[in-house]
Amino acid sequence: MNTVKRIDPRRPFVIAASGLRRITLGEARTADASDALSIGAPRAAHAPAPKPKRVCEAGKRRLLVVAHSDRGALDEHARQAVAAAAIVADTQTEVVLLVLGELTDDAAALGADKVVEWPALARPAFAPDRAVAAIGDCVAAFAPAHILMPDNATGDGDLGRRYAAQAKASIATHVVEIDAQHVGCYANGGRSFATRTWPDVILLDPEAVSAKLPFVGAGERLAPPASGTVTEFAQSGRYADRGTNQLDAAQVALEEADFIISAGNGVTDIAGFETLARALGAAVGASRVAVDNGHFTRDKQVGATGKTVNASVYIAFGISGAVQHLQGIKDCRHVIAVNLDAAAPIAKRANLTLIADAQATMAALTQAVEQAKQVRAAPIVAGAGTNLREGVAA
Ligand SMILES: Cc1cc2nc3c(=O)[nH]c(=O)nc-3n(C[C@H](O)[C@H](O)[C@H](O)COP(=O)(O)OP(=O)(O)OC[C@H]3O[C@@H](n4cnc5c(N)ncnc54)[C@H](O)[C@@H]3O)c2cc1C
Questions:
Q1: C or N: which end of the chain has fewer Cβ atoms within 10 Å?
Q2: Whose CA is nearest to atom 39 of ligand 1?
């Protein structure tokens, strides 16, 4: 991918499996070892070659990574925390991943050797005591040397601090540098840099480590350790979960939207595009050309001089994928492109490219979504041949 990076002048590198990867303004992204397989190979992104398994003698030492999942997946920041553990782990060290929520991702590809999935502790339910107890149970079961977590504002950062306070563990927060012996973070409001040997708990800042690994872990799935502490907290009732509010996608700031459909110069049916956005419940984005043409307001522009978005799904209709646009979607998880031109640069970034007319695709998608909604909303009519108990036609 040929993107120009925005540089933090104090951290012009990320820690990758191949060592420090320097970011240089204006340069194409340097490929690390994990990319090597795709260089020169035709469209390798859709068919990645298998990676070797990391050499690890099981059981001698363990690192525990803890993170919440979102609808079965870890976000990029959480993946970076797992990768950090896998990068620094030596051949005697296993990476154990505790996922609070479901995990449908391939745990081995994330770099984890063992994974414990705890669906009952998924993020929508606010249950910090139970989550702290779950970490305690895993610490008792696996006796990890250290715990790594993403230092985010969506639960993990808070949880790591709670655990450290409760377990009287040493902790480093906002860690931006890490190697097998030391961690580093900014201190004094960013005026100085502090390093120390590994504490018990490490909360990692985003973008400090590359989540791309040239190897995979063992990915062995284990049941949560059954100590009963978590269930005990379930009954304590110290917190009342008041649920979550559903917001209309159009009300969500583009930077926060999880599902975005974006229109470029190849979209001529703007009304059809907006109808599709409403049908899908997606937020609306646009390329600069589409904004300059007056089809969208400036706050919808995605890219270097617009918004940087990090949606789970970003569908680009009729967008060529100029470098300035790609800069705005570098953190998106799944990019789907609809374009008449198979050679458009967006196709190199996209996980899936549909070589098709944007207008026809939008109309067909809207129809399919509406039909699916009608089927879902249709009442189950009792009558001959209908099994009411099962709720399906016999
Ligand atoms: C300093 C600077 C900053 C910039 N900042 C940004 C920015 O923040 N964001 C941004 O987006 N751009 C930015 N640009 C502009 C950027 O370089 C591109 O010009 C712009 O992104 C192109 O928009 P586009 O892909 O929609 O249009 P085009 O380049 O015209 O591409 C249209 C695409 O649609 C496809 N297409 C045409 N018809 C159809 C159809 N019927 N069905 C399906 N596909 C079709 C074409 O094959 C083509 O790939 C910036 C430029 C500069 C110089």
A1: C
A2: 266
| Integer angstrom CA distances of residue 74 from 70, 107, 196, 243, 261 | 6, 10, 28, 22, 22
CA of 4 to the centre of ligand 1 (A): 16
Q: Give the domain ranges of the chain.
A: 61-234, 249-377
Asked whether this chain's domains 61-234 and 249-377 adopt the same fold, the reply is yes
Structure tokens of 250? 């159009």
The finding on whether 265 has its CB within 6 A of some atom of ligand 1 is yes
Structure tokens at 37: 């397989």
Question: Residue 325 C-alpha to ligand 1 middle, in angstroms?
Answer: 7
Question: pTM of the prediction?
Answer: 0.69
Q: Are 303 and 325 in contact (CB under 8 A)?
A: yes
pLDDT at 228: 58
CB of 85 within 8 A of CB of 63?
Answer: yes
Rounded (5°) CA angle 200-120-232: 75
Superfamily covering domain 61-234: HUPs (3.40.50.620)
CB contact at 8 A, 208 and 149 = no
Q: Who has greater pLDDT, 304 or 47?
A: 304
263 CA to centre of ligand 1 in angstroms: 9
Q: Is 340 in the pocket of ligand 1 (CB under 6 A)?
A: yes
225 pLDDT band (50/70/90 cuts)? confident
DSSP code, position 340:
S
Q: Degrees (nearest 5) of the Cα angle 81, 85, 86?
A: 115
* CATH number at 249-377: 3.40.50.1220
Q: What is the pLDDT of residues 119-159, one digit of tens each?
A: 988 887 778 888 999 999 999 999 999 999 999 998 999 99
